[in-house]
Amino acid sequence: MIEVTFWPQGRKVKVSRGTNLLIAAQQAGLPMTVRCGGKAACLMCKVDIHPDYGEAGMSARTEQERFKLGADSGQRLGCQARVLGPCHAILPEDPLKAAVRRRLELQAEEDDDSWLRSFRSDSPGGK
Ligand code: FES
Asked: Where are the domains of the chain?
């Protein structure tokens, strides 16, 4: 069994040699929502290459990955990258969580601005 670590959670899972990262993530309790069932078509299984570990422990890029992502894109398709040794991958943020986070960040910026505007209008000579 080979250990795979998924970031940013730091979740570790041991999988059999040859398991792809999509299945490994699922076994780690970090399932990715995909549409093509692992046929390198939907691109919803993209994982980022960890800057400290690179692609160590992963199989070579398939022709489909090179065609869809480029030869050195900094990403792999989870359904194509197979575990050959201990490896690390960064999972993307869930799209729904990312949308909520962006909305909350915008709201916080607007709240900051409204606070600043009210402060300015309350101050003597404020506008
Ligand atoms: S699961 Fe669709 S591209 Fe990997």
From this structure: 2-92, 94-127
Q: Which residues pair with 88 in a beta bridge?
A: 5
Residues with CB under 6 A from ligand 1: 22, 34, 36, 38, 40-45, 77-79
**CATH entry 3.40.50.300 includes domain 2-92:** no
Beta bridge partners of 100: none
pTM of the model: 0.78
- Structure confidence by residue, pLDDT tens digits, 69-82: 988 889 999 999 99
Spacing, Cα 82 to ligand 1 middle (Å): 13
Question: In 3D, which of 66, 47, 33 has the Cα closest to residue 4?
Answer: 47
